[in-house]
User: Fold this.
Amino acid sequence: MVRYLVYRFLYVSIDLMMKLRWWRWRVEGLENLPPRSIGGMIIAVNHVHWLDILAVGRLLPFSYRVAWLGKSELFRNPVQRWLLQNMHVIPVDRGKRDMAALQAAEEGLRRGEVLLIFPEGTRSKTGMLQKGRSGAVRLAMRTGVPIIPAALIGTHHGIGGTLRGQEVVLRIGTPYYIKARPDTGNHRAEYVSSATTDLMMQIAAMLPEGFRGHYRTALPQARLGP
Assistant:
């Protein structure tokens, strides 16, 4: 109930800003979203500002209310912790492989959650796309849910930019599945690395060329995509 009310408040508030043309937010590629009825799915998007969560949360349809991974420091304040837990935010210790967080994310996906993941692992201070980490790919392999690559453009201007009328665009790519491979050892590691690179290249291809960063040589269509 808390989650529903918070999301409804955000939707109504941001809708008002958009209708008044104070906030110029829009989404492209909504038709690419899988039906909500299929259950869990991963939305993987670049990360440059805290505004990213708000933008994705609003620009997706209401039925696609997202859960996401948040740094454990955000949970220190009791009131904030209560709110984040009710929003289905999963605390994660940055700088190490947090198995408890990955397990919680996996369980959420199996329950049918829409999980928002920033595969870079942290915000980009420059706005350029950073090298991706393998968490999103590993979760997709373990759970069998689709990954939807997406790109946010314009949030690097921050809330000040939004208030000044800077446009924010969420581009949603084509969903795809990553097949789990029975291989072990180096073969599996190479497969995960290749799949992670593919995901990041698909995100990069939706960003303006100047923001592709580590993947600035991305091709229009990556190897493992649809």
